[in-house]
Design a protein that fits this description.
Elements: H1 4-13, E1 21-25, E2 38-39, E3 54-57, E4 71-79, E5 93-97, E6 109-112, E7 122-125, E8 147-149, H2 157-165, E9 170-174, E10 179-183, E11 188-189, E12 200-201, H3 203-214, E13 219-221, H4 229-240, E14 245-249, H5 260-267, E15 270-274, E16 285-289, E17 292-297, H6 301-319, E18 329-335, E19 346-353, E20 356-359, E21 377-381, E22 393-398
Helix pairs in contact: 1-6, 3-6, 4-5
The structure holds adenosine monophosphate and magnesium ion.
């Protein structure tokens, strides 16, 4: 039986970034994974500029200026952000300048207007400023040639803003990962359909599709094939033609309807492993079909979602070319108590905030979904642990 870590390592060893690349407009780049380093073609800002409203001048002209002994300078004009006019300021002169306007020739500082009389033709300067003061230098934000984004980084809105400030219009990114999702089970009906006795609504399809969408992945959702191994095998074989990874739920345990033990051989998939020493999701079954990973999650909704986070999400990130850290761990203090002993390793859903971790519900069973709401982490309880009491240190895995 695998451990969480060994199972994940095995999966990752079969997950190489998808080969495709595409160039997308910057406006569509957020959430994609960069396939190129981007170095800045220009300094940002492109010129020395004023960070405030005041006067640009030569610091030597106002060396002795004070409220009591103002220095009077001739104002040669007015520069606003974007006005584009070149100014040259001589000794004894000043330029009225607004935030964002270029520092004119002949000036080595800016004085804020509050320290002047704000005069139009002549300005009285009431304070001194030293050379270089109140100048925002060219390249202060991004130096020309500096790398602002590395291949493998997931592009955030901040990246997009920085790239826009460099004048970049498009980015080369990894192709989107194509995920086929199949939720199996004779008992499943879709929301909107009638609910005959003994049936349940399919929660996994909706939850996993939504979670994939949160991660920027659009799933190809296959019709449920019930618990018919032949149909399921055929559906997965077909879907694999246009997918980079196959995800299923249901049918991986030890019951009569746990069809995936026969689906894998039927479709000619190689089994990588079955079962992981943890709760929930211990019957996780994984294989390879034509070089593509097949991750078969338990049908129990919490098990399906937790194992999606722990196994499928890191694999997806790898397929997307991402180098980000997935599911980082942190230590936290348990608030509330967890009354059960844990003979084997157990992961329970919780919400971590400011170093404290709170249980998100009473029902910790794999079949219960409701307490996933508000959950942002799993508490990782080692095998052989006693009940956990209030205030105990625990380790959590961020989701
Ligand atoms: P299985 O993994 O197929 O043995 O299913 C385990 C439990 O999860 C059973 O109670 C199923 O009815 C339930 N289950 C299976 N698939 C789903 C699903 N898609 N949505 C909600 N519950 C499910
Ligand atoms: Mg089943």
């Amino acid at each position: 039986m695998e451990t969480l870590e060994s199972a994940l390592a095995l999966l990752l060893s079969h997950a190489a970034p998808v080969p495709g690349r595409e160039t997308v407009p910057l406006s569509c780049a957020r959430g994609r994974v960069a396939a190129q380093d981007i170095a800045s073609p220009i300094p940002v800002p492109p010129f020395d500029r004023s960070p405030l409203d005041g006067y640009a001048l030569n610091s030597r002209d106002i060396a002795g200026a004070s409220r009591e002994r103002p220095v009077r300078l001739r104002v040669i004009g007015e520069a606003c952000a974007g006005c584009g006019e070149h100014f040259s300021v001589a000794r004894g002169e000043a330029l009225r300048i607004m935030t964002g306007a270029p520092i004119p020739e002949g000036c080595d500082c800016v004085i804020r207007q509050e320290d002047t009389d704000e005069g139009m033709e002549y300005a009285a300067i009431y304070a001194r400023v030293s050379s270089g003061e109140n100048i925002c230098r060219a390249g202060e934000d991004v130096a020309q040639g500096a790398c602002v984004m590395r291949a493998g980084e997931r592009i955030t809105s901040a990246h997009v803003g920085v790239l826009a400030s460099l004048g970049v219009t498009q980015v080369n990114v990894y192709a989107r990962v194509r995920v086929a999702l199949l939720c199996t089970g004779d008992e499943l009906v879709q929301p909107g359909e009638a609910l005959p006795y003994g049936k349940i609504y399919d929660a996994n399809r909706a939850a996993l599709t939504a979670r994939l969408s949160e991660l920027g992945v659009q799933a190809h959702v296959l019709n449920s094939e019930g618990d018919d191994p032949e149909h399921v095998a055929a559906a997965l074989q077909r879907a694999a033609q246009d997918a980079d990874i196959l995800l299923t739920t249901g049918g991986v345990s030890v019951g009569k309807k746990d069809i995936f033990h026969s689906v894998l051989p039927r479709m000619g998939a190689q089994r990588l492993f079955w079962q992981v020493a943890m709760k929930p999701g211990s019957p996780l079954l994984c294989g390879l079909y034509e070089g593509k990973l097949l991750i078969c999650l338990s049908g129990n909704p919490f098990a399906a979602l937790a194992c999606f986070e722990l196994f499928a999400k890191p694999v997806l990130a790898r397929l997307e070319g991402s180098t980000e850290r997935i599911n980082p761990r942190t230590k936290a203090v348990l608030r509330g108590a967890f009354a059960k002993k844990s003979r084997g390793r157990r992961l329970i859903r919780a919400r971590c905030e400011g170093g404290n971790v709170y249980l998100t519900g009473e029902n910790h069973s794999s079949g219960s979904l409701a307490s996933m709401i508000g959950c942002n982490c799993l508490i990782d309880i080692p095998a052989g642990s006693d009940a956990l009491s209030e205030g105990e240190p625990v380790e959590v895995i961020w989701l």
